[in-house]
């Protein structure tokens, strides 16, 4: 008898609010695994002596797992069931945490990041659909809101706890992952009992088509550009903080506390979550365009904080970047859902998410290369210039796209 069957045979299924809370906790804990390492990058870098380019490649390895999840396993839970997908996903997250716990070289970090990205990619698709089905009478909007908010809260709380433990507790590269493994096991137990919402799941994996479906219909390509670029820029801002903020604090602001590095990302994540929660009445297009306007002063503040070595400016920049990222991600995702034809929504959404994942990784790699060849400040100035150009281009396409939709 399998673990899943045994759990169901001995306990009552979780339904209603308990089921929703369990699935939301799954999202939060999976995303926590992606930023638990954020305050630890500088420690790994110091102990193993790798370059900033290597640091950014380790960070970007996470996106390899995300893309594999999207391209190969994105529709898996639709076919074999939410719970039957969630349990292996949690197992992959556990293996990822074990890899980090036992890591004794850079290759272990690459492996751990790829596994973490795979777990998050498949787990998010599974859990978001699961939430929508568990609260179907209230529509998809609430499910998306819960998924997005718990996503960022998981990111922020993990970075904060890892920073505090690295600064004030023993075993800075181990203790966080011991705690994380415990949390994963605690969350896994109720998942085994949570109500399945797929009525007739396939019994064998061989019956599930894994060929990716990615496309943007010609009729909406002009309208698609603005949300795609906005999603790219929003996640570029998040990636900048997740990968490089601890190094910038140490090198340019002379702040070497791991707790402060974790707290800075915690600030970013909490403001993103609050922005998403508090701006629901703002239309999707207004949210997206507002984010594009805010991106320019956000990156200017980041660059100014580095040049001047001012922590107060960095804190202000973090808050503004968070508002831009929250509005940009929420608004652009909703715009894509609105413009996509109903019969091709999954394909269009997959195309959008590829832009988001690339935004989370490619600019960070570029910063790492420029930092090594020139200086961290030069790299941040180049990053700021890129974000400004992208934001202005997306703003122009967003205005054109709105005009085109009105004409039709």
Number of helices: 15
CATH topology of the largest domain: Growth Hormone, Chain: A
- The CATH superfamily of the largest domain is known as MFS general substrate transporter like domains
Major sheet = none
Annotation, overall tally of beta strands: 0
The helix fraction, in percent, is over 70%
Secondary-structure arrangement, i.e. CATH architecture of the largest domain: Up-down Bundle
Low-confidence stretches: none
Element order: H for helix, E for strand: HHHHHHHHHHHHHHH
Count of domains: 2
Strand content: under 5%
Structural class: mainly alpha
Mean pLDDT: 87
Shape: globular
What's the CATH class of the largest domain, please? Answer: Mainly Alpha
* Rg measurement, Å: 21 Å
> For the terminal residues, how far apart are their CA atoms?
57 Å
């Amino acid at each position: 008898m399998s673990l899943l069957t045994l759990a169901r045979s001995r306990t009552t299924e979780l339904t209603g609010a308990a089921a929703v809370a369990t699935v939301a906790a799954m999202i939060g804990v999976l995303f926590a695994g992606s930023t638990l390492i954020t305050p630890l990058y500088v420690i790994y870098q110091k102990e193993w002596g790798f370059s900033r380019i290597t640091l950014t490649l380790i960070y970007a390895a996470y996106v390899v797992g995300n893309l594999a999840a999207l391209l190969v396993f994105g529709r898996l839970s639709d076919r074999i069931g939410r719970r039957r997908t969630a349990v292996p996903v949690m197992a992959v997250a556990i293996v990822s945490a074990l890899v980090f716990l036992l890591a004794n070289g850079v290759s272990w970090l690459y492996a751990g990041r790829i596994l973490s990205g795979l777990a998050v990619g498949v787990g998010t698709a599974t859990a978001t659909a699961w939430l929508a089905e568990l609260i179907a009478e209230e529509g998809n909007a609430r499910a998306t809101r819960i998924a997005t908010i718990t996503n960022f809260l998981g990111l922020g709380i993990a970075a904060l706890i890892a920073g505090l433990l690295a600064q004030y507790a023993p075993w800075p590269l181990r203790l966080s992952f011991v705690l994380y493994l415990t949390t994963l096991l605690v969350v896994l137990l109720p998942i085994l009992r949570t109500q399945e919402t797929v009525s007739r799941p396939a019994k064998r994996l061989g019956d599930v088509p894994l060929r990716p479906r990615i496309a943007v219909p010609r009729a909406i390509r002009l309208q698609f550009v603005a949300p795609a670029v906005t999603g790219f820029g929003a996640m570029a801002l998040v990636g900048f903080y997740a990968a490089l903020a601890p190094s910038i604090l140490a090198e340019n602001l002379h702040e070497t506390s791991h707790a402060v590095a974790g707290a800075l990302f915690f600030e970013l994540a909490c403001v993103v979550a609050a922005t998403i929660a508090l701006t629901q009445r703002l239309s999707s297009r207004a949210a997206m365009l507002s984010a594009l306007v805010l991106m320019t002063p956000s990156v200017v503040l980041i660059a100014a904080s580095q040049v001047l070595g001012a922590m107060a400016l960095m804190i202000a920049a973090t808050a503004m970047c968070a508002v831009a990222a929250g509005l940009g991600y929420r608004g652009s995702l909703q715009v894509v859902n609105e413009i996509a034809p109903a019969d091709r929504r999954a394909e269009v959404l997959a195309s959008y998410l590829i832009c988001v994942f690339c935004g989370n990784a490619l600019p960070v790699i570029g910063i790492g290369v420029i930092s090594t060849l020139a200086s961290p400040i030069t790299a941040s100035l180049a990053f700021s210039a890129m974000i400004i150009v992208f934001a202005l281009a997306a703003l122009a396409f967003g205005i054109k796209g709105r005009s085109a939709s009105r004409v039709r």
